[in-house]
Amino acid sequence: MKIIFYTRNRCPLCTDAKLILQQLQKVHQFQIIERDIETNDEWTEKYGLMIPVVEINEEIVQYGMIDPITIEEKIDHL
Questions:
Q1: Which residues 6+ apart lie within 8 Å of 6 measured at CB?
Q2: Does pTM top 0.90 for this prediction?
């Protein structure tokens, strides 16, 4: 499974979210694909006010304040 993680530099919420994903990765098998929205105009326009954004199976599971329970529940139901 792959989790797309939209982020940008100098984003404290993104740093926290990445740590949450890395902790969940110790229990669940998935790959984190990190995408810096500042490298793509379309991502910046779409996610600029939402980051961090966690996407699983082309569905935005959570954005902004990321919590491990919501992400883990989605992983468990796949």
A1: 35, 37, 43, 47, 50, 51, 52, 53, 55
A2: yes
